[in-house]
């Protein structure tokens, strides 16, 4: 029974991390209609910025805030300098550029920060909580991760459902020509979308690094699992991203705990194939996919 509880709690924490990354993918897709494969190295860069500040003697929270601010700036700059020139071209052009960014940012991080493994501090304790004299697999840092992702989810749902800016961002992504005719500053909305997505991505990078080792490739595997989580819930739905992340995290945790860790990647692939076969738009899709 204890193993079951610990496996579920470990999956919950892991799923929350996947959900944070999936939220960044969903945010940028909803606001720009682009899948950003460079989200992971962008988050990695900002995590190293936080680590550099912390190593310089400043508090964890100053580094945390600096990473989020760096993500905001980095996302805006990338949209303006790299993505903007292909804004009116086919969407595949921007996707290919994000793949190029993936490689470029990896190389830059290796040059600037080095390839060695470095320890990243945790905001709170890493010891499992005591419940009834038994240590369970849920730490204070894990609780912080869960709360942080829940807050981000609520903010994103509020942004897209109840604010004028959220409506303008979605209009700019779906039909920029009509949005311009209605007075929407489409360029600014796309920049804002990239900037906010980079902030959420930076948060996911910090949560993943918490209490572990970081290096330029430490988030590479998260690209795969975060993308599966986003597709599982639906690239249009922030709620779906969280549900997809939690579902994936719990599923992979049970596979690892009871069948073997070597089957985790295969299980993720099977889950992705099953969802794309039965419901291509994701579990929270609200409209049927259009065929051209």
Automatic annotation (TrEMBL):
<protein>
    <submittedName>
        <fullName>High-affinity branched-chain amino acid transport system permease protein LivH</fullName>
    </submittedName>
</protein>
<dbReference type="GO" id="GO:0006865">
    <property type="term" value="P:amino acid transport"/>
</dbReference>
<keyword id="KW-1003">Cell membrane</keyword>
<feature type="transmembrane region" description="Helical">
    <location>
        <begin position="34"/>
        <end position="54"/>
    </location>
</feature>
<dbReference type="GO" id="GO:0022857">
    <property type="term" value="F:transmembrane transporter activity"/>
</dbReference>
<dbReference type="InterPro" id="IPR052157">
    <property type="entry name" value="BCAA_transport_permease"/>
</dbReference>
<comment type="similarity">
    <text>Belongs to the binding-protein-dependent transport system permease family. LivHM subfamily.</text>
</comment>
<feature type="transmembrane region" description="Helical">
    <location>
        <begin position="189"/>
        <end position="209"/>
    </location>
</feature>
<dbReference type="InterPro" id="IPR001851">
    <property type="entry name" value="ABC_transp_permease"/>
</dbReference>
<keyword id="KW-0812">Transmembrane</keyword>
<dbReference type="Pfam" id="PF02653">
    <property type="entry name" value="BPD_transp_2"/>
</dbReference>
<feature type="transmembrane region" description="Helical">
    <location>
        <begin position="60"/>
        <end position="82"/>
    </location>
</feature>
<keyword id="KW-1133">Transmembrane helix</keyword>
<feature type="transmembrane region" description="Helical">
    <location>
        <begin position="94"/>
        <end position="114"/>
    </location>
</feature>
<feature type="transmembrane region" description="Helical">
    <location>
        <begin position="134"/>
        <end position="160"/>
    </location>
</feature>
<feature type="transmembrane region" description="Helical">
    <location>
        <begin position="6"/>
        <end position="27"/>
    </location>
</feature>
<keyword id="KW-0029">Amino-acid transport</keyword>
<dbReference type="GO" id="GO:0005886">
    <property type="term" value="C:plasma membrane"/>
</dbReference>
<keyword id="KW-0813">Transport</keyword>
<keyword id="KW-0472">Membrane</keyword>
